[in-house]
Amino acid sequence: MNGDSKSRLAAMRSANPDLTAAALVTTDGFAVASDVSAGVDEEALAALAADLIARAGRSSREFGNGDIEELYARGPQGYLVVMSAGIDQALVCLAKSDTTVGLLLRDVRKAAREFAS
Q1: Which residue blocks in 19-90 are alpha helix, DSSP H?
Q2: Are 33 and 2 contacting, i.e. CB atoms less than 8 angstroms apart?
Q3: Whole-angstrom distance, CA of residue 101 vs CA of residue 18
Q4: Where are the beta strands (DSSP E) in the chain?
Q5: What angle in degrees, to the nearest 10, is found between the helix axes of 3-15 and 101-116?
Q6: pLDDT for 39-55, tens place per residue?
Q7: What value, to the nearest 5°, has the Cα angle with vertex 102 and ends 89 and 11?
Q8: Distance CA 35, CA 11 (A)
Q9: 4 DSSP assignment
Q10: DSSP 22
């Protein structure tokens, strides 16, 4: 795993305690770097995030909306956010259900831009 990316993910989670997991993944479903809470399977997170990106991207293109840049889902236990972080990478984050969504999206968008550059 990329040490610099891992430390950037750890810093992001430290700055926003509502984040329970953050991972930089390839669009093929492999973890590049991660910082996750105990009990979060980083390989499953990477693979499932890549699958979400592929399916959502296909749907978006099919209906004329172009490529997916970001998506998020809310469930009873929290949020899942996936954002494009370059051509072949995405940033996937899990957050607690009581997070402030605006701050969560701001933090994840900022980190995704940094990973893309």
Answers
A1: 42-62
A2: yes
A3: 10
A4: 19-26, 31-36, 70-75, 78-84, 89-96
A5: 160
A6: 899 999 999 999 998 89
A7: 55
A8: 9
A9: H
A10: E
* Tens digits of residue pLDDT in 5-29: 999 999 999 999 999 999 999 999 9
Residue 99 to residue 23: CA distance in whole angstroms? 18
Tokens of 108: 């994840």
Give every CB contact of residue 19 below 8 A, 6+ residues apart in sequence: 12, 13, 93, 94, 95, 104, 107
Bridge partners (DSSP) listed for residue 93? 22, 81
β-sheet with 78-84: strand ranges across: 31-36, 19-26, 89-96, 78-84, 70-75
